[in-house]
Amino acid sequence: MDIEQLMPHVEALIFASERPITMMEMTEMLGQALEEQIEGDRIVTCIDAIREKYEAAYYPFQLREAGGGYQFLTKKAYHKTVLQLNGDKHIKKLSTAAMETLAIIAYKQPITKTEIEFIRGVSADYSIQKLLEKELIVIAGRNENMVGKPLTYTTSKNFMDYLGINNSGELPQLKDITNIDIVLPTNGSEAIPEGDSQLLVSPDGSIIDEETAE
Question: Exposed, middle or buried by CB within 10 Å (0-12, 13-18, 19+), for 36?
Answer without folding.
Answer: exposed
